[in-house]
Design a protein that fits this description.
TIM Barrel, glycosidase, hydrolase, Chitobiase, domain 2, 675 residues, xylan alpha-1,2-glucuronosidase activity, alpha-glucuronidase activity, 19 helices, Xylan alpha-1,2-glucuronidase
Amino acid sequence: EDGYDLWLRYKPLASAEPLPRAIVAQDNTPTVKAAVAELQRGLSGLSGRRISVAKNVSAPSVVLTRLTTPEAGLGNEGYMIREGRQNGQPVVRIRANSDIGLLYGAFAYLRRIQTGATTDTTDAPKVRLRLLNHWDNLDGTVERGYAGASLWDWWRLPDLQDPRYTDYARANASIGINGTVLNNVNAKAASLTAPYLDKAAVLADTFRPYGIRIYLSARFSAPIELGGLKTADPLDPAVRAWWKAKADEIYAKIPDFGGFLVKANSEGQPGPQDYGRTHEDGANMLAEALGNRGVVMWRAFVYKAEVADDRHKQAYSEFKPHDGQFAPNVLVQVKNGAIDFQPREPFHPLFGAMPKTPLMMEFQITKEYLGFATHLAYLGQYYEETLRADTFQNGQTGWSVARVVEGEHHALSGMAGVANIGTDRNWSGSHFDQANWYAFGRLAWNPQGSAHDIATEWAKMTFTPDPRFVTPVVALMMRSRETVADYMTPLGLHHLMDTGHHYGPGPWVDNLGRPDWNPVYYHKADDKGIGFDRTRTGSDALSQYDLQAQKFWADPKSMDERYLLWFHHLSWDYKTRSGRPLWDELVLTYDKGAKEAAAMQQTWAEMKPYVDAERFKAIASTLRIQAREAKWWRDASIAYFQSKSGRPLPAGVAAPEKSLDYYKSLTFPYAPGHH
Ligand code: BDP
C-alpha cells in the first residue's frame, strides 16, 4: 500500500450485499470500454470474483445504456443509476445521454457500493469546466510542487507513453475532472511550438476516452518570441493573424483542444497593458483566434509594484470596470481570495462584482502556504467555507460564491484547482494530500457539496469503511485546516511566511523590493497594535464588497474573529470576544494551534489497527514533522510579535524555545517548489 491506487483501491468488501457478476454494454467506443474496464476492475476487487463482460443479461449484471431519447436533466455529462430486473436477473442500469455520462456513472456506482450509499441516484455536474491547472515547467520541475517531478515526461514524449498517464486520467474522471492545463501559468512560449504540440497531442489522445480535454497556458509575448513579430499588441493585425494561425495549427493536431489559460501583466509576465491595452483587448483577441472551438481563461491574479495602496484591491480595480466587455468564450479566473491562497482568506470581492462575466474559481490544491505536502490540512473544509459565503451580488441575498461560480446566467462556468500531484508514488507527496485532489474534483462537480461528506467518502475508499476509523479521521480532517491557520496565521493575519519558499515563518521580513511582498506590510505590528485596516479609515478594500457582505467584517465586535486582523488594525489591549486582550488571544491561538498539531499524532496512533503498516508509518512520520514545525511557527511568531508588543505572555503559556535571532537566522536554500 504505497498510495498509488488512491481512492480506487477496490479491496474486498466485508458487506454481504451480493454484487453484480457481469457487465453488459452494447457499444465499444473507447469511453465505454474504459467504463467497462473500470467496472470489471472495481467489482472483481470488491467481490473477489471474476467479472465477465457480456452482450446480454444472463447473470446479475451492470447494464450500460446510452439513451436514444436524450434526458434533458442529465445534460451531456450526467447519469442515472437504477436497480431493476431483466431476463429474471437483478440488474443495475447505468444510463446517460453520452458515453462520458456512462463512465461517470460507472465511477459513481463503484463509489456508492464502497461508501454504503443507496444504488439509485441521478446526478449531473453543476459546473462545465472542471480543470486541474498544472504549474509544470518544460524542464520537469513543478512550481509550488511538492510531490516530485512533473508527470509529463516532455523529453521522451511523444514516443514514450507512460501508463501513468492513463491512471491519471482514470483518477480524474472518477471525480469528474474534465480538463487539464498542462503547463505553468508562468509560461514558456516553447510550449506552443510544433514539437511540444506533438507531445501534448499524445497526452490529449490518452486522456480523451476519459472525457479530459487538454488546455495550455499561453505566453502573451509568443508572437514576438516564436513568430518574430516586433510586437504582441493585441490590436495589431499581424499579431491577431499569428494567434489565429497558431490556434489552427493546434486544432489540426488536437481537434478537441480546450483553450488557453493566461497570466498577463502579473508578477512580470507580459500582457496587453505593455501596449497600453486592456485585459479584455488581450483576452478577446485570443478568444477570436480560438472561435467556438475553445475558451480563454484569463486570470485576475494581477498586482503591480507601482500601486502602493493595498494589493487586496488591485484585481477588483482592474477588472470590475470591464464587466460585460469580454467575448462570450472568455472566463475570468479568480483566486478564492484577494491576496494569495493564504491559510484563510475572505472570498475574493470580484465574485460579487462581475455579474455579466463568467467567473471561474481558482483554488490551490497544492499547499504552498499550508505546509506543502508535509502538514495535514484538509482543504475541502476551506473550499466549502469560500463557496458557501454570500456575495450579495446585485444586492440580493442567496448569491453564494458557489452560485456565482455555477454561473446560471452564463453559457460557461468553471472551477480550476492548482494541482498537487507529481511523480511521487502516492501522487500527492503525502497520503492525506490525496484528499485535497479528491475534494476539489467533487466540489467542482457540485460546489454546494459537503466537505464533511466528501472527506467521509474519501476516507472509506482510501482506507477502510470501518466507522472506528472513519469517524475520528474525518473529524481530524475537518479540524486540520483551522489548526494550521491557528499556528501560522491566527485571527486573520496573513502572508507571514518567509521569502521564496513560503514554508516557514518570516513575520519579520521587511527587505524585499516591493512593499506588498513583505510580511510587515500585511501585519503592521508595532508597540501599539497589529492588523491591516481595510475599513474606510484604512485602505477601504472592504468597500469592494456589497454593502451587506461588508457587514460580516465591518465591526470587530460582532464579526467572526478568524478574520479580525484581515480587516482591522487594533490595539494590543483591544478586548476580544473571550474577554481577553488581543495580545493574549493571539498568543493563545498560536499555542492552541501548536497543541492541536501535536495532538493529531495521538489520534493517528489510535488508528493503527485499521491501517496497513506502510501508510500508517508514513503518515505518523509526517504528523511528527508537522507537530515540530507547528511549534516552530508558534515559537518564532510569538517571539517576533512579543518584540513588538513588549507584553508578557499570558499566564501558563510557555516561552518560545529559542531566541528571535535564532528563528531569523534559519535559511532553506533547497526548499522544494520554488524555481
Ligand atoms: C503565487 C505563487 C507563484 C505563482 C503565482 C500565480 O507564489 O509561484 O506564479 O501565485 O498564481 O501564489 O501566478
